[in-house]
Design goal:
Order of helices and strands: HHHHHEEHHEEHHHHHH
CATH class of the largest domain: Mainly Alpha
Shape: elongated
Number of domains: 2
Oligomer: single chain
CATH architecture of the largest domain: Up-down Bundle
Length: about 325
């Protein structure tokens, strides 16, 4: 081997040794791993996250959200983009490490509460409006599936700060973040509880109460009773489904089939804080039954005023229900 070849070999070995030293001493330490993981989430670089953790494990939750979902990429991006963090200390014990980190994430409880209050207002206003001005609940802006997402991006920034130990295990020359329930809950701003459930879990009281209200004031009323009254009040016959009373009564029957589920949920609430909304539901449920009984007794006829359903008792009961819902301090905390 001549001198030139020897120098080249020495240079190659030196670079290799420097690279190994950098990898084992600097780049792959727990603090650097935590920073790569959290920066990857904030930048929504799944490849960067997956080098040191499992992105799929992070977003894998028990309940698929109807209002806000970790399975929706746009929702995830908006949520993680607002992450802020500060590594405070590192503790290593052999092949295990804990990186104590302060994490600030969007307060998803606050965003859901904003959504629910706005949605309740919109549903109530629609149900109390003139029959010719009503729209179906699915068309109301504040009941759209992306409203929490929209509020996360556009309303006042509200964050929740937590101090969490990011657990890691040694993996080869580096470290790998372990995705635990507490870490997932912190990173999602409380959207996912430590037990894996979400605000939209069936065991979450607020969600069941909200769904009962949305069902009664939205789906059942606007797509059932209100359409039948529109048929009775129509000044001329319509040559479509809305001029076919058998069709409208069939739709109402389908909507009424859902009522039993809401009755069961509301009437089994036994916590004192829900006593008022439970009582409100009893009254509202009775007004629904009374209107349904009138339709069953006499098929509503076109332009026959006596067949008109009296909406006032229902509207009064719905308004009381809404008023008490809006007085609740928070609708995202309690579980059955």
């Amino acid at each position: 081997m001549n001198k030139k070849e020897s120098l080249f070999l020495i240079s190659v070995l030196s670079f290799a040794l420097f690279g190994l030293l950098y990898a084992t001493v600097i780049a792959l330490q727990p603090e650097a791993t935590a920073n790569q993981f959290l920066n990857g989430l904030r930048d929504y670089s799944i490849k960067k996250v997956d080098r040191v953790a499992s992105f799929d494990a992070l977003i894998n939750v028990q309940t698929e959200g109807e209002i806000f979902s970790l399975n929706n990429e746009e929702h995830r991006r908006a949520l993680f983009a607002q992450l802020e963090f500060e590594v405070k200390s590192v503790e290593k014990r052999g092949d295990l490490a804990n990186v104590k980190t302060i994490i600030r994430a969007p307060d998803m409880s606050a965003k859901y509460n904003e959504f629910y209050r706005s949605s309740i207002d919109a549903i109530l206003k629609n149900a109390l409006s003139d029959i010719n001005e009503r729209t179906y609940s699915s068309n109301l802006v504040d009941t759209g599936n992306d409203m929490v997402f929209y509020r996360l991006q556009n309303s006042e920034k509200k964050q929740i700060e937590s101090t969490v130990d990011i657990s890691m295990k040694r993996s080869g020359f580096g470290w790998r973040v372990e995705i635990g329930d507490e870490l997932r809950s912190v990173l999602t701003g409380g959207l996912v509880r430590p037990d894996g459930s979400t605000f939209e879990d069936t065991k979450t009281v607020h969600y069941g109460v909200y769904k009962a209200f949305k069902y009664a004031g939205g789906t059942l009323f606007t797509e059932g009773f209100s359409d039948i009254n529109s048929f009775v009040l129509t000044e001329y016959e319509l040559d479509n489904d809305y001029g076919n009373i058998e069709y409208l009564v069939g739709v109402l029957a389908e909507r009424l089939n859902e009522k039993r589920e809401h009755d069961q949920f509301m009437l089994q609430l036994d916590d004192a804080q829900y006593a008022q909304v439970k009582a409100d539901w009893r009254v509202l449920s009775a007004t629904i039954d009374a209107m349904a009984a009138k339709v069953e007794k006499q098929l509503p006829r076109y332009n026959v005023q006596e067949d008109l359903l009296d909406e006032k008792p229902f509207q009064n009961a719905l308004q009381k229900f809404a008023n008490h819902l809006l007085k609740m301090d928070a609708m995202t905390d309690s579980q059955l």
